[in-house]
Amino acid sequence: MSNVKPYAVGIDMGGTNTVMGIVDTRGKVVATESVKTKDYPVFQDMIEAIATTLRKLMGNVGGPQVIAGIGIGAPNANYYSGNIEFAPNLPWKGVLPLGEALYDALGIPVAVTNDANAAAIGEMTYGIAKGMRDFIVITLGTGVGSGIVINGELVYGHDGFAGELGHTRVHNGDRMCGCGRKGCLETYCSATGVARTAREFLTARDCDSLLRKLDPDKITSKDVFDAAQQGDELSKEIFEYTGRIMGEAFADFVAFSAPEAIILFGGLAKAGDLLFNPIVEAMEANLLDMWKGKIKVLPSGLASGDAAVLGASALAWKAK
Amino acid sequence: MSNVKPYAVGIDMGGTNTVMGIVDTRGKVVATESVKTKDYPVFQDMIEAIATTLRKLMGNVGGPQVIAGIGIGAPNANYYSGNIEFAPNLPWKGVLPLGEALYDALGIPVAVTNDANAAAIGEMTYGIAKGMRDFIVITLGTGVGSGIVINGELVYGHDGFAGELGHTRVHNGDRMCGCGRKGCLETYCSATGVARTAREFLTARDCDSLLRKLDPDKITSKDVFDAAQQGDELSKEIFEYTGRIMGEAFADFVAFSAPEAIILFGGLAKAGDLLFNPIVEAMEANLLDMWKGKIKVLPSGLASGDAAVLGASALAWKAK
CB 3.0-4.6 Å disulfide test: which of A123, A145, A232, B308 passes with A139? Predict the structure, then answer.
């Protein structure tokens, strides 16, 4: 058993922070540290910063020789190539050899995937999807991402970019999306989409609302949630609207891969019944009869602070 | 090598005919026969008719001992259970133990799947998808079916019913579907959907058209194709309309599984440029930038008479 390495590294690279963690085989984060992504406008400097931080963290548990691998979840990262490709929310432009650069710096096997896929692997390995072979994770953040698992395997597609469900079009949707197209799911159902709906509703109506006390340009999905919790009718309606659009989209996703569950991940997923009730209602109304009452919609089963790091670390065990 | 059985049986069960074929390892149909499905209102009689016909066919090539297995593609058939479940277009109601009944009758391993999945397996084994690990087959017939292959494996989903892409909703679609929902892809893009568009266009406009010579209630997609081939403008427009809706839907399918190709199967797929040009144009206009120019849209690579039997037979080699 001396060959079995008891730890893996998980890295969650985001536009603001890059969080690194050392995780044991049971999914316990035993050490963690982070650096500010934006402090490193030169990509190679970021790699050095990660390597330096990891050397320190690994030193705490017994050095690189006890590390099975490094898994990284990053926006627009490609599993096949190990590259980040044209990520709009990271400081570096073009195609960046993330996996290769980190392997060169540390000599430990590295596996790369996008952040939503890392979340799906995390749910399958340590979270609410343990034991499931067919499910979809939807990440609700600045955008809407997705990680799809079929037959127990993550779906990468022929080019490594599968699972862009945030960029499927919603029924009758016409909002402009950052991708240049119209009506994408993420223009309605991301955290920023919820804030956009709030601004639209506030302009279109003249009803009272707690949200009117806020600067409309600065309203966040959290503000809408807080107001809804206090009984604000307009805010509750914003969640109903968001949930209905999501539920209709979910019915189409079910027609594709017949998942056992659709799992919501990210800040908005904590909105609970406010969001889940309209999602389930709209999904059920739009499912083919044979699926009615059979598809679960669940919140993430991972502790929010560690979720992305855990997901990335789960990928690390298979890194080569 | 005496254990290697050189033949498989493929069965294509449809609402009208049930075609049986004996296929060799290279995908050559060496013997074929069919019975009329509607002649057997009692399910067990149908099983007996298939068994009797197969005994005769198998006798021609060396008897049951040279047959590796039987594969059946049938509407609403479930790979996991081997049952046909609530098929609206077959003479028998409820849940029918197709795989079990045929195994009991013949003692040869049987594998069951739905007709669109059989087509996908056929394309992968003998057709245009040979060597592809990620593709989608769309069957265009009375309805629209689909067989999805990811990582070289057919997608069955958690319950065996995945791949109902004909029942995803098209953008702004509102036609009533036989499934009880509105705006399903198959209400626009099946052969019957094309005929429905023809009737709608003929009613809504007063332009000249070759189609006006026909009884509107009896117009078929073949009539529209023939008229378009003769230069009929309205008929060409019907294909453009159908293709645009299909192309928009395909862009969403690509966002799900990033397939290398989408393959069209069935009579309508023979419409050639009339249908493929507007499909590709609309798909490209709706794809995320990273996929533009990279996803193939292809016609089936299987000879039409044998396609469904070949697809079912391909499943038979793995039957247990």
Answer: A145
